[in-house]
Amino acid sequence: MIEVQEVRKQFGAVQALGGVSFTARDGQITALLGPNGAGKTTLLRTLVGLLRRDHGSIAIDGIDPEKDPLAVRRNIGLLTDQFGLYERLSTREYLSYFGELNGMAGPALRQRIGEVASLLQMDDILERRTKGFSQGQRIKVALARTLLHRPRHLLLDEPSRGLDVMSTRALRHALAALRADGCCVIMATHVMQEVTHLCDDVIVIAKGHTVAQGSPEELCRRTGIANLEDAFVSLVGTEEGIAA
Amino acid sequence: MKPKFLVVFLKELRETLRDKRTLGLLLLFTVMYPALIGYVVQQTINRATKSEREDLTIAVIGASQAPTLMAQLKQRNIKVEDPGTLDEAGITGLLQARKFPVVLRLTDKFTENYAAMRPARVELWYDSADEKGARRHDVEDVLEAYGANVASARLLAHGVSPATLAPIQVQRFDTGTNASRSAGLIGSLLGVLFVPVFICGMSSAIDSTAGERERRSLEVLMAQPAHAWELVVGKWLTSASLALGGVMFEMLLAHAILSWLPLEEIGMSWSLTLADLALVVFVTVPLCLFAAGLQVALAMNARSFKEAQSTLSFVMLLPLLPGIVIPMMELKTASWMYMVPVLSNQTLLREMTKGGELGVLPYAMTFACSALAALVAVGFATWRMKSERYVLSV
């Protein structure tokens, strides 16, 4: 469970977050919608305790990431907009590295790597060095790293970009399985179809403010627009979407 | 559970050792300096021993006028060739062609003047741009000895003791030992042995900070449940261990080369044992840590590999500077020298090659000054990685 109350963050004269509040519940996939520059990256960084907020409160399973960032991070899988692979390491070595950083070791780690690899259908690239991987293979490796330490919370920034149809389905199944396990998943995305298919809850942020939160149906109902994409545009305000 | 910094260390080390270009460079630098020293010393030895082994051939114009002189030259293993009559340009050409290091010309009136006991002129032609100056001295010695012999004979013929020509007698005593004499040359050569400390760990320091930042993997790493200091220390130790490995290998190589070269031929010796060498490497450990710390602290602030590389190659000259400039100033060894990283290591190694007891203090100071600087650098790097501004720019 991730609870965010009135979080604000200012960089010099720039107000990156002007008041973000939402609750992402366990056992749900929450979509984070917002135009580019809405403050999604800043929000994710604040959630893992890399940035300090100026105002408001954050509780991740009751823990404040500012007070105990390590405890929070142990329980979070973060997929950023960059994959951050190491070209001279094989996929297995890459996963072992992050597993060990998360306190895993030995046979348990090996076994978990195998599990994650079959979940994401990536056994074929496990022993290969990541240099020259396709976009789809890269994102799979990064996703595997995100899931490796069985975090209860997942923060995913556009997890499905660059994936082919098979892999997208695999990802969807993986996310559904995590939801069934009771994980709390926050997923930033621009693909409305994904939101309607997969997400139970939607947070819309624009200009660093939460504009709306609710299920896709609720948002459509509130705006009186049947199509989620049009509803999103109307919530954000058309002009800002284009300007950003 | 493995400590986190060890996890980072092992991963960085593995990644660096897989980079063939970096390894090649590492090998090049560790082999280059000992080889360079060996070459310079070998050349010195060759130059010093050559004149004895090889016989010298000079050209003498008008040789038939002074048969005794020619005989004495022959006794000293100097061969004589007669190139025939030559003018100035001809002699210059002969010297420039490096056919003969020295050309003697006996003037036409040599016999006449000699017989009349007037100074008979012998012209000694040489090219000072030619490096075989020592051979000229051989010829001059013979000429001088010949002149002195003739003078003594003439004095005797007049009933005067030749000893009147030597009012004083100089006897020389040299208290310098082989080891202390070598300290000058070898000491200045040994200075370069510490250069690889600043080179071997550099690419790993850059790759694991600026490189990781450029490839955008640093943000992911910083979002892991590990303290900033654990990440910094892991990367720092990787660079430091590469620097240490390079320096160890290089010292051993230099030791092998200097032990093998016939240093006695030029009145020098290499007196350090392997135990001494181990001690030198031991007090160099903090220097490696300092170099690596400085590199990590600087490189992590660069946005790209390239930027870090240009910053570092410039900044890495600074710690080396005192080690280059101060030996040039030919200052006497003083205790403050042991408080400057690099310079302290060089001074220590030079004093050790001189032989004699140093006491514990120089070792301790050499060790401590670099260790302190290393801690400051790593402290700064950790503080920097924790700062919000840094997070924003990764």
Summarize this structure briefly.
Chain A is 41% helix and 24% strand. Chain A has 244 residues and is an alpha/beta fold.
Q: Can you describe this structure?
A:
The complex is a heterodimer of chains A (244) and B (394). Chain A has 244 residues and is of the alpha/beta class. Chain A has helices at residues 40-47, 69-74, 91-101, 106-119, 135-148, 165-180, 192-198, 216-223, 228-236, 238-243, and strands at 2-11, 14-24, 28-33, 55-60, 76-79, 153-157, 184-188, 201-206, 209-214. Chain A has a 6-stranded mixed sheet, sandwiched between helices. A 3-stranded antiparallel sheet of chain A has the order 2-1-4, covered by helices on one side. In chain A, a hairpin with a 2-residue loop joins strand 8 (201-206) and strand 9 (209-214). Residues 239-244 of chain A have low confidence and may be disordered. Chain B contains 17 helices and 4 strands. In chain B, helix 3 (67-75) links the parallel strand 1 and strand 2 (78-81). Chain B folds into 2 domains: 4-46 and 178-393, no CATH class; 55-165, abc type-2 transporter like fold, CATH 3.40.1710.10. Chain B has helices spanning 4-17, 20-53, 67-75, 88-96, 110-115, 133-157, 178-190, 195-200, 202-214, 218-222, 228-260, 274-299, 305-315, 317-329, 343-354, 360-386, 388-393; strands spanning 56-61, 78-81, 102-106, 122-126. Chain B has 394 residues and is mostly helical. The two termini of chain B are 29 Å apart. Chain B has a 4-stranded mixed sheet, with helices on both faces. The interface between A and B is medium-sized, with 32 and 27 residues.
